[in-house]
Each structure stands twice: as C-alpha cells, then as structure tokens.
Amino acid sequence: MNEVNPPDHGRMRASDADRDSVAHRLREALAEGRLDPDEHSERLDAVYRAKTIGELVPLTEDLPAENGSDALAAPADFRSPRPVYGGGRIVDREPTSRVAVVVMGGADRSGSWVVPGTFVAFAVMGGVELDLREARFTQRETTIWVCTVMGGVGITVPDDLQVRVHGLPLMGGFGVSENTPSVVDPDAPIVHIRGIAVMGGVGVEYKPRKHQGEIEE
C-alpha cells in the first residue's frame, strides 16, 4: 500500500502577502538597527525574487519576530494573513506609520500596515505610494492629508472602503478613478483624502486585491 507523503512546506509557492510580510519585518529590522542599509537592500531584493516559502524563511531566521519571540523556525510555521473586509479592518493596534515625507525621492506604504486616524503624505519633486488594499485602521474614519509640489501621491484602494476626496489642485490634478464601486458594508472604513497639489498630482485608484486578481484570472 502506497503512503501519501506529507507536503514539503518549504517548496510551497509564496504569495504576494507572504513577501509583503517579510518585507515589512525587514523594514522594522532596519529601523531597529539590526540590519544595515546594505543588508536590508540585499535581503529585500531576495524577498521579491523568492518563489517559495523555503526561500523566504532564511531571510528573517536571525531576526526576532514582531512580538519579541523567536524567529520562525520552520516553513510550516509560515502563514499568509487571511483577507479581511469592511468593518473587520478596524483594529485596536498601534499604527505602523504616521507620515511619509519625500524630497526628490520616493516612499511607499503597503501590505498589512496599520493606518492611524490621521496620516500625512508630503512629496516635493518625488513620489509617495499608499496601498490600502490590505491595510488595517485604528478608527472607522481616517483622514489622509496630502501635499505635493512638483511631485505625485498615488493611493490605491480596494472595493470595500469608502473614499471621499476633498483636494485642491493648483496647476495640477487631484482626483479619483471613475470605476468607483458601491460599498455595501455599513461598517466599512471611511477614508477622507484632503490636501493640495501644486504643479503635481494626487490620484486615487480602485484596484482588486491580490487574491481577487488571482480568482478573476
């Protein structure tokens, strides 16, 4: 009688959420001084080249986990976060970031980051990308204040958030894409986008979440 061998979790294909989770931990390690900029850059490149869970695990084996416990010991312990929707995005946790400021450079916030009640994005001759598709929120209503001068701020949102844009463009643009979905969850977070764009642009675009894209394909 043939026995079915257990799956080799190290060979399991990595998802975008897996890669985002590891990239987030590496950013924290850089901020904590556990990695120098060269080490962080090298590991981050490896994260986005990784095809399997087994390739991701070694990148954080020598780092403590976010809760201070030991790092993941085996690929079998690695799990992608389950998608949350609408009111499930509101959490009682500390924000992971409160501001993004760039001057002739770039910054991004993505993955399962925790957005505070007020977030500030400031870009001068540079760009800021905010991806809210997997974000959590500390409050039901969030205000993102945006100021860009000869730069750009792009905000990507999913179909289960209510977004309201109140910006002022001066020789620039401030708007939302036309494919605005109708949010049905009465408890869905509300995101207000306020600010000014001077000779630059602020764009809000609805896109499917990564797992939705996989299903649609």
Written account of the structure:
The protein is of the alpha/beta class. It has 2 domains: 69 residues, no CATH class; 131 residues, no CATH class. It has 4 helices and 12 strands. This is Cell wall-active antibiotics response LiaF-like C-terminal domain-containing protein.
List the helices and strands and how they pair.
Elements: H1 16-32, H2 37-49, H3 53-56, E1 99-103, E2 106-109, E3 114-115, E4 118-124, E5 127-131, E6 136-137, E7 141-149, E8 152-157, E9 162-170, E10 173-176, E11 190-198, E12 201-206, H4 210-216
Parallel strand pairs: 1-4, 2-5, 3-6, 4-7, 5-8, 7-11, 8-12, 9-11, 10-12
Please give the largest β-sheet: 5 strands, parallel
Task: Report the count of strand segments.
Answer: 12
- Tell me the fraction of residues in β-strands, as a range: 25-35%
- How many structural domains does the protein architecture include? 2
Poorly predicted residue ranges? 1-7, 68-81
Domain Cell wall-active antibiotics response LiaF-like C-terminal: 123-177
Domain DUF1707: 12-64
Region (Disordered): 1-23
Protein name: Cell wall-active antibiotics response LiaF-like C-terminal domain-containing protein
A few lines on this structure:
The chain has about 220 residues and is an alpha/beta fold. It has helices at about 15-30, 35-50, 55, 210-215; strands at about 100-105, 105-110, 115, 120-125, 125-130, 135, 140-150, 150-155, 160-170, 175, 190-200, 200-205.
Keywords:
217 residues, 2 domains, Cell wall-active antibiotics response LiaF-like C-terminal domain-containing protein, five-stranded parallel β-sheet, 31% strand, disordered N terminus, LiaF-like_C, DUF1707_SHOCT-like, 12 strands, globular, alpha/beta
